[in-house]
Amino acid sequence: MTLHQRPSLQAVPAYKQGKPAAAGASKLSSNESPHEPLPSVLDAIRDGIQSIHRYPSIAAPQVTAELAALHNVDPAHLTLGAGSVEVAAQLIHAVAAEGDEVMYAWRSFEAYPSLVRIAGATPVEVPLDADAKHDLDAMLAAVTEKTRLIFICNPNNPTGTVVEAEALERFIAAVPRDVLIVIDEAYVHFDRSAVRADGVELFKKNPNVAVLHTFSKAYGLAGLRIGYAISPLEVAENLRKVAIPFGVSDLAQRAAVASLQAADELAVRINEVVAQRERMYAGLAAAGYPVVASEANFVWITAGDATADIEARLEAGGVVARAFPGEGLRISSGSELDVDRVLAALGADSAAVAAAEGAIA
Ligand SMILES: *Cc1c(COP(=O)(O)O)cnc(C)c1O
User: Fold this and answer.
1) How far is CA 82 from CA 33, 224, 244, 288, in A?
2) Which residues are CB-contacts of 109 (< 8 A; sequence separation ≥ 6)?
3) Quick check: helix, strand or coil at residue 143?
4) Which of 307, 275, 288 is nearest to 352 (CA)?
5) Which of 35, 71, 196, 197 pairs as cysteine with 168 (C-beta 3.0–4.6 A)?
6) Where are the beta strands (DSSP E) in the chain?
7) Before 7, cis peptide (omega within 30)?
8) Cα–Cα distance measured from residue 232 to residue 211, given in angstroms and rounded to the nearest whole number
9) How many angstroms does the Cα of residue 214 sit away from the middle of ligand 1?
10) Per-residue pLDDT tens for 75-94?
11) Are 310 and 291 in contact (CB under 8 A)?
12) What is the Cα–Cα distance from 50 to 48, expressed in whole angstroms?
């Protein structure tokens, strides 16, 4: 006899984590920060260790107050979760149930399809356009009476492309006001585009926009699990109800506060990651790889059938990337050494780049 379980879960794959790397190899498969934690962040975590026999504060007053000040919003709009992936799940549970639709571009963040199905809702995936960008017209055309939530991943994981400010404003204006639009800004700190869409500003201007942020990527706290939403008050109230109690540890809260207080130091690191992203992009483009210009901490190669081959060459060169078979690879921007390895493994080292640039000039 088999147990009674939810039949709908048969369609849900378990989340596939970026591949681990052998000791000494470059792990560029999960968009993590290549930097070890800041000393001030480690101190804050050490200060909290003596209290791990206590439950954390669910209200998380200190980090909430810091974030409210940073974004100039009322603290009541802020809600936390064990990483923004948990907050994304909260958002889906808050607005969608069986039969409701949740829309997002595809390919986008790996977690969206499972989170939607686990909530019992129906995923609506709208293909990216030929430039690997959100096809906002097609998304608008796919809105139905059942649409409850639309994710806009900006910059998009895994392609690194952005939705420009003006286009996003037009999209928001055209979507029915009773549909929640969630702008997932996990990579916003790496976005150097001239007309960056500012999710928090769009939240302030529109009653149906929420923003998702995380401490995992730019702030280097992936292992501690803390992320947050800024959402309309009625949504924020429901997020507090659907959140699993005590999901955000006290250590994570302390590390987040210390990170916000070290924003200047972190900005230097973020700039380094952006510089390495640009170097990786330029090297791969000059060597003839079909790379997509990225505003995140990774570069996407639209490798198609060559994906497995490129993945194998990277692995032979001590680099673990994220491959999507038959589609392409996402390579996180790491340290200078990491990017050296990528370029060497793919025959796009600086000598090759210089030669290619010379040939163009
Ligand atoms: C990494 C990522 C997240 C969430 O990361 P957490 O570690 O759960 O905070 C959310 N959205 C996108 C698009 C991501 O790539």
Assistant:
1) 18, 8, 9, 40
2) 88, 151, 153, 157, 184, 186
3) coil
4) 288
5) 197
6) 26-27, 78-81, 101-106, 122-127, 147-153, 180-184, 209-214, 227-230, 291-292, 298-301, 319-320, 322-324, 328-332
7) no
8) 10
9) 6
10) 999 999 999 999 999 999 99
11) no
12) 6
d(CA 110, CA 163): 19
Which pair of tokens denotes residue 274? 């952006």
Please report the pLDDT score of residue 350 as a whole number. Answer: 64
pLDDT tens digits along 118-128: 999 999 999 99
Please state whether 132 falls in left (phi above 0), alpha (psi between -120 and 50) or beta.
Answer: left
CA angle 69, 72, 74 (to 5 degrees): 85
What is the rounded distance in angstroms from the CA atom of residue 244 to the CA atom of residue 230? 18
- CB half-sphere exposure, 158, CA atoms < 13 A: 23
* Residues paired with 330 in a beta bridge: 300, 322
For the whole model, what pTM was predicted?
Answer: 0.95
Residue 256, ligand 1, Cβ within 6 A: no
> Measured from the CB, is residue 83 less than 6 Å from ligand 1?
yes
